[in-house]
Every structure is written in C-alpha cells, then in structure tokens.
Fold (2Fe-2S)-binding protein.
Amino acid sequence: MKVTIEINGQSVSEDVEDRTLLVHFVRENAGLTGTNIGCDTTSCGACTVLLDGESVKSCTVLAAQADGHKVTTVEGMAGPDGELHPLQKAFREQHGLQCGFCTPGMIMASASLLKHNPKPTRDEVRHGLEGNLCRCTGYHNIVNAVIEASGQEVDR
C-alpha cells in the first residue's frame, strides 16, 4: 500500500506492506536511525516518536495508521540551523545518558510530557516517563535533564 507521512517536515511516500510498523518506516524508508528498535512489544520506549505532537511507541503503530499524519523523531528536534533543542541540551548538560540507546525515546517522551505539563515536579517527570526504560543511568540525571529543560532549578 502507498503511505505518505510527513517526517520532520519532509514528506516521505513509499509503497510498503500493510503490516509495516512505523518504527521500520522511519528507519528503513525515511533513513532516520535515531529512533531505536528495542523490544517490539511496547515495553521499553526506545522507539518513541511524536505522532501529531503526541508521544507514541512506534513499534506498536502501523505505518498505514500514520498515513497522512506528521511524525517528529529525535532528528527533527534540533532547529533548522542545527542548534540542539533545549531537551537535547539538557540531556547533555545533566549527563542524562550513558549508552544512549534509550535517549531518543526519552527525549521524545519528555517533549510530550513538557507540552502537557511545562513545569513538572520530579515525581511527575518520573511518572510521565515510566513507560520508557533505561538500564544505565538510574533515572536521576534523566529527571534532572527534564527539570532543566522546563526552566526549573535542578537539585544538585
């Protein structure tokens, strides 16, 4: 079937099998490999993208379901001049990553969280990111990064 998805402001049209997952469309058809494939069961959140501005785990969305919609990946977060998004900067500044595998999904889920709650508490950040797993950081620095990106003071 023919699928057309606007990804990071660019229209991507491809003929795909009807069972093609959005994560595979993004990686294989659009060539954007920042979105990671982790578990394929919606458990880890490494594949999180924004679909029409809302975070979704792209391993559980068919490309056909995203036909005609807008997708933002971690590559689309930076400004047109390449300047990092405040969340990307905060993750770097607060050491909110180690191996980096979960980072794209964490950033995308955090963007959705901050859209709905611009000044979350630490507990609200933890709750908002509970569907995204990190096996390296222990989450403390990830929470700090989201707090910093929200413009709040980070507890040191």
Q: What stands out?
A: Strands lie at 2-7, 10-15, 48-51, 54-57, 70-72. The chain has five helices and five strands. The helical segments are 22-29, 86-93, 103-116, 122-128, 140-149.
